[in-house]
Structure formats: structure tokens, C-alpha cells
Amino acid sequence: MEILLTFMDAIVLLQLLLGVIMGIVFGAIPGLNTIMALALALPLTYNMEMIPAISFLIAVYCGGLSGGSISAILLNIPGTAAVVTTTFDGHPMAKRGESMRALSLAIIASLVGGIISTIILALLTSVLSAFALSFGPWEYFGAAILSLALISALIDGDLINGFIATLIGVFLSMIGTDSIESVTRYTFGSTNLAAGIDIIVVIIGIFALSEIISSTNKNLTLQKDGKADFSFKKFVIALKESILYIPNMVISSVMGVILGILPGLGGGTASIMAYARAKMSSKDKAKFGTGCPEGIVAPEAAKNAVSGGALIPAIALGVPGSAPVALIMSAFLIHGVTIGPLVLKEQPHLLTSIVIALIISNILMFLTQVILIKYFAMVITVPKYILFPIIAVFCIIGTYVVSSTTFNVYMMLVLAVFGIFCSKNKIPLAPIIMGFTLGDIVEIYFRKAMITYEGSFITAYTSSPVGSVFVTIAIVVPIIVICKRILKAKKEI
Fold this sequence. Notes:
By secondary structure, the protein is an all-alpha fold. It has 21 helices and 2 strands. It has a two-stranded antiparallel ribbon. The protein is globular and about 70 Å long.
């Protein structure tokens, strides 16, 4: 009862609303992200009571997860790797004048994913934490390599170029200090590269800035349906339409929770696998990548479901499922609580508080986005000569604050030029981002698996059925895609 009274306090609700808005803003603006928002929000919680403090950070987290879809859909600029998949169908839909529809579907799917993950968090925390503990190096390697195979094989365009893009991303992730042997590699004598390239720099350079530079040389404008394009009726229509995609959203949400509890995989892997599943199970696969609603709701539901999933190992085991959750966990330490297995027994009210905070935050996120969606959609009416310089400034600020050095800004510019080169040569950019995101995981866990199984790939494959299923699917899916494309080419001849 005391917990409910805490959340009924007008001040606490206002804090949650401000946290959600802060998260949405940081998620939506290219160059900023959820981690930055949480890092700035953390000092604000020092003088708060523990429950309101944790709830405020959770609100920022939920808002940030949802906000990233705004720039991904409207501008084709994903703020994080988790929303790269949303650009596949979200931006094509916006380009043909359905920005309100695309944003509405994304918001609805985000709410469904967030609520389902919260329910699973409340009911199955201990069970799913035990599941996470059963995963070893080979299982992590299998899940990561499967994600890379899916993003390479299922993206539209030349399959070879998809694999090249993925390998480029993996190579970029290897620059810096080897996390196992602690030796530098591919740094070309630069001390600035010893720590590797930050994911923010890669995303902003290859995706955001290259998109801005490319678009300034084109007369590309998003189509508009006049006043109706920004009307609330569009949201109501999308809400009715979303009923058709409930099974898709539920399955994607469950996938997001499962992948969320595995540290290091997170929203990027969840959105890829959810998108791939939706595409493979669809009767009309050709519509994916052209502005397909299912291609929006699947990754959005999965991405937001990661929020509850990533909190499960944090609460039950004291192991954060993602970087944002690690920041949220630090708030517990500030208030003198060491999160872990004993917390569920000694302070069960903490889990209840987190569940309530997640539900309220997701509802506030939904309502805030619904109210402001009209204004988000109107960003497409801003002239390019005004919009692009503003975004470019945020890109520069975002890369600079990562480590407070101008080297990141220069690296962003280099990657932007490289991104333009890739686009002109029809090398897709999304696999580069995902290859970079998961490349470190693939390498580290493969090497750990080889150490565990004394260097024998066969022993690893035969000893771990779950990981081996992932690896097998990662091999089979590209082969199936290649065969289908060959048969399709023969029929066209």
C-alpha cells in the first residue's frame, strides 16, 4: 500500500513525466542517446528517495528507447543500433507521405513491448535469470553470429555486398585493445585508437552525417498528404490497424525479453531477429523494405521489450543486461542497496516498485508521444537548409562529448565520407552498424568457447545444443536466401 501511495504522489508522477520527456528528446535527436540522458539524469537523483530516484531513471530509459524511432523513421537516421532495423520500413513509409502512420505504429508497438516485458519481469524473474546463467560462451557466440547472418542475408540488395558490409563492421569493432590479451591492434600507431572507436561515433558518422551530406546533394523531399498527414485521425486509424499485428507484437516482445536478459546482446539483436522472424513468416516477403507495417511493429516491440528483459538479471543476479541498466543499478548503490539475489528475499518491495515504475513510464511514454506526434511528424516540413545544419551541430556535439576530444569529431567525418562511398557503391550501411555492435561479442565469445573446448570447433558444436542450433541457422539462412534468389533469377529469364 505504501508503494502505491508513493506513485500516487503528484511530485513523483511529474518526475516520471519529465524523465520520459527527457528520454524521448535525447533518443530522438541525432548525436544524443539514452546512455547520455541517464548519465545526466543520475546526479539529479542524489537528493531523491530511493524509489522515486530509480523510477525517474527508468522513465528516462523507457523514453529513450521509444524516442530513437522518431529520427529513424522521419530522417533515416537511427540514434542507436537498436533502431537501425526500424529504418528499413519506417523511412520508406514516411517518404511516401505516411509519416504519421509509421510513427503511430512504432509508438503502439513500443507500448505493447514495454508492457509485455514488464509482466514477464514481474512473473518470471527468477526463472529467466536461471536461463541466463545457463548460457555459456558458445551460446552467446551462436546468438550473435545468427544476428549477423540475418542482417546480412535478409536486407534488400546484393547479398555479397551485405556480407561485405557486415565484415567491415566487424573489422571496425576489432580496432583498439584486444579485450582478452590486452594488446593493441589495427591502431596504425595512433594512441587515440587504443581504446577503439565508440559506437556513437560510428553510428553518427556512417549513418547520420553521411545521410545529411548525401541528401544535401539531392532534391529529396518527403511527400505530404496535406493537413490530413498531421491529423490525430491518422493515429486513430493506425491504432485500429495495429490490432491486426498483435500476434506479431506479442511474439516479438517475448523475443525481446529473452534476448534482453542476455548481457551484451540487447536491442540491436532483438530488433534484427524480430524483423527476420516477421519477414520469414509473412506471406508477402517482398513488401518488407518498402514501407511494410509489420516491418515496423516487430523491431519496435522487440526493442522496447528489452527494457524489462535487461532488468531481470540485474534484479535477480546483480548483472546488468545492458549499459543503460548498469547506470540504473548505480542508483541503487548510491542509496546503499547492493542489487542481487538477496534483494528479492530481503526487499521484495523493490521488484514491485520497479514493475509499477515500468508500467507508469510506458504509459506516460505512450501518452506523451501521442500528444506530440503531430509535432514530431511536422519535422518533415522544415526546409533542409535549416534542419540539416542543426542536426550536423548535434552530431558534432554528440561525438565530442563521448570522450571530450576532437579526435572523435575527425573520426566521425572520416566515417561519414566512408559511408557515402559505401552508399554510392550499393554497400548497405545497416549491416556495418550491426557488424560493429556485435563484432566484439562474436570474437570474444568465440575465443572463450575455443579456450573452453580446447580449440576444437567440433567439440563445441557437439557439446552445446542451444548454441549449435543458432550456429546452424546462421549457416542455413544465407544458403536458403541464395538458392531462392538464384531460382527467382532463372524464372525471370
